[in-house]
Design goal:
Helix content: over 70%
Strand content: under 5%
CATH architecture: Orthogonal Bundle
Oligomer: single chain
Number of strands: 2
Distance between the termini: 56 Å
Largest sheet: 2 strands, antiparallel
Length: 300
C-alpha cells in the first residue's frame, strides 16, 4: 500500500507540472488555433533564469525563502517577455498565412531557443539548488511526500483557480472568450484582438516558467533539453483532456501523470516516454476531441 501511495503522489507531481505547461498550450490554441511548439522551451528558460538568479542571491547570503520568491518572480516575468516576443516575431506575421506556415515557424522557434540556451550555457546537466525548505509538519510523512511536492500541488491548484477567475469574471477574460469564439466579430464590437493574443501568450508563458522553477527545485538538475520532452508530454496531456479546454488540460495532465507513474512503477521505466506517445496515438484514434473536448461541426 505504501508503494502504491508513493506512485500515486509521484503521478500527482508529474501531472501538476504537466498541467502548468498544458494550460499555456490550451489557452493559445483556444484563442488562435495554433500549437505553440516553443512553449516547452519557455518552461526551460524559466528554470535557467531561476538558476542564475538563485546563484547570485545565494552568493550574497540571502534567505532561501526570499531567494525562492525572487527567483520565481524574475523567471516568470523574464519568460513572459519571451512569450510576448515570440508571438510578435514568429506568429503574428503569419496569422493569416496557411496553418502549415505557422506550424513550421513554431518548430523553428523551438529549435532556435534550444540551441540558443545550449550555446549560452552548456549541454551538461547543471545542479539546481533546493529552494523549497523542508516543512517541520511534514516529518511524519516525508518518506511518502516531500515539501517540494506539496508546494507543486498547491501552486497548480492556485494557478488553476486564478485562471478560471481571470477568464470567467474579468474584462480581459471576456475579451479572450470573445476572441476564441469569433475574432472578426470580437473586433467589430471593440475588442483589441492583438492585445488579447499577446496577453494569452504572456499568461501561458508565465505558468510554464513557474512549472520550470518548481520541477527544477524538485529534481535538483536542469539542462537545455528539459523543455522538449516536458513540452511534448504537456501537449499530449492537453490533447488527451481536450485541446482548448482548461479543465481538460488539467484532467489530461493528471491522467497522463498518474498513468506514467504506475506504468514505470509496476512495468518498466525504460519505456516511460514511449508510453506518453502511445497515449497520444490511442487518444487521436478513439477520442480525437479529448476527454472534455467537443467536436467542431461545420456550418452550412
Amino acid at each position: 500500500m505504501e508503494y502504491f501511495l508513493e506512485l500515486f503522489l509521484g503521478g500527482l507531481t508529474r501531472g501538476s507540472i504537466y498541467a502548468l505547461i498544458a494550460l499555456g498550450y490550451t489557452m493559445v490554441y483556444g484563442i488562435i488555433q495554433l500549437i505553440n511548439f516553443a512553449h516547452g522551451e519557455i518552461y526551460m528558460i524559466g528554470a535557467f533564469t531561476a538558476l542564475i538568479v538563485a546563484g547570485i542571491l545565494s552568493m550574497l547570503g540571502w534567505n532561501p525563502i526570499v531567494i525562492l520568491l525572487l527567483a520565481s518572480v524574475i523567471a516568470v516575468v523574464y519568460s513572459a517577455s519571451y512569450g510576448w516576443t515570440i508571438e510578435k516575431l514568429a506568429y503574428k506575421p503569419l496569422r493569416k498565412a496557411p496553418r502549415l506556415s505557422a506550424l513550421i515557424s513554431a518548430i523553428g522557434m523551438s529549435m532556435f531557443l534550444q540551441y540558443y540556451v545550449l550555446l549560452a550555457q552548456t549541454s551538461n546537466f547543471l545542479p539546481f539548488p533546493s529552494l523549497i525548505p523542508d516543512f517541520k509538519f511534514m516529518e511524519p510523512i516525508e518518506h511518502l511526500v516531500r515539501s517540494t511536492e506539496i508546494v507543486i500541488y498547491l501552486t497548480t491548484a492556485i494557478v488553476m483557480i486564478f485562471l478560471t477567475f481571470l477568464i470567467k469574471f474579468t474584462r480581459i477574460g471576456k475579451a479572450m472568450r470573445a476572441t476564441a469564439q469569433d475574432k472578426d466579430m470580437a473586433m467589430l464590437v471593440g475588442v483589441d484582438v492583438n492585445k488579447v493574443i499577446s496577453f494569452t501568450f504572456i499568461v501561458g508563458s508565465a505558468t510554464a516558467a513557474l512549472g520550470g522553477v518548481l520541477i527544477a527545485s524538485h529534481t535538483g538538475q536542469i539542462n537545455y533539453y528539459i523543455g522538449f520532452i516536458a513540452g511534448i508530454k504537456a501537449f499530449v496531456a492537453a490533447v488527451l483532456g481536450g485541446i482548448g479546454s482548461m479543465p481538460g488540460a488539467v484532467l489530461g495532465s493528471m491522467v497522463l501523470g498518474m498513468s506514467e507513474s504506475f506504468f514505470t512503477g509496476y512495468i518498466s521505466s525504460d519505456y516511460e516516454d514511449v508510453f506518453a506517445f502511445l497515449f497520444l496515438v490511442f487518444t487521436l484514434i478513439f477520442r480525437p476531441s479529448g476527454i472534455l473536448g467537443r467536436s467542431d461541426t461545420d456550418k452550412v
